[in-house]
Design a protein that fits this description.
Blueprint lengths: L10 H6 L1 E9 L5 E3 H16 L4 E11 L5 E12 L13 E13 L2 E9 L1 H8 L30 H14 L6 H4 L1 H4 E8 L6 E3 H16 L4 E2 L5 E5 L2 E14 L12 E14 L2 E9 L1 H7 L4 H6 L3
Parallel strand pairs: 1-6, 7-13
Antiparallel strand pairs: 1-2, 3-4, 4-5, 5-6, 7-8, 9-11, 10-11, 11-12, 12-13
Length: 310
Amino acid sequence: MGVFDPRDVSVSQLAGGIDSAATVHLCHPFGDVTGGTGFADVALKPLWAAIPDCERRVQISLTGADAGGQVWLGQAGHYSGRMEGAFLGMPPSGRLVSLRFHEFYRVEDGQAVEAQVIWDLPDLMLQLGVWPMGPALGATGRVPGPMTQDGLRISGDGAAAMRVVGDMLDHLHLSPQGEEAMQLPRFWHPRCSWYGPGGIGNIRGIRGFRDHHQIPFLDAMPDRRGHVDKGHFFAAGNYVGFTAWPGMSMRVTGGGWLGIAGAGQAITMRSLDFWRVEGDLIRENWVTVDLLHVWDQLGVDVLARMRQLL
């Protein structure tokens, strides 16, 4: 099946790998669609129209079973090519662009029967110079694949890596007790890299993670609640994937995160995550967040605001 082959594929191959009755959860502004045809019509065909020589370049391809025995395929990479047409109102650059993606598929009998897809649209806007919101605290720029260069050769028992990530997340929930309670140095490599979405950026080291993402995030949403119990963890070798749709619920009561002023708004948050564990420490973490959906819940149409720049 094309969608399960970590090589460049066409729209028809991607659509053909998804069952016609599958629920396909797409990031904002696409919404939920049905089957591979829905995915193609709403998102893939417009992308290929804007980037006619589009290539799907996969950097991570992880397959594993969750606690309930469901098999998941998670892939991370970039849709790359020369942007010759507009996409969601973004102007063509006539130059190479790379739209980052995380795509998770629940697989039965060689077909995807469910999909969850986040494309990093804010990062594409940044590449095109039309990002209408505040600057990221982290570094912007293309997100690399694994430093071990083994993202397409993942194999082996992922139980040890799963334990490291699970213990780390358990301690993150202790954030109201302060930084020491979370014991970040116990779980994160001192030279760890956290690769966030456009609008948040890429971050190096535990201190960078704290200063440029975690502290603003927790200060703004101290009551955030993760839906780990409703999500799906799967692992192989040194890699762990996690998905829930949504993955968190919270109220925005403080200021600072993404420049948003907290006014008690209730929101949910979608993210698709990969971790790479080295020994007993997390060395790399790839995170996509549906930030346009966050702003939409707060009453801000980022794409409309972008069009006002043009």
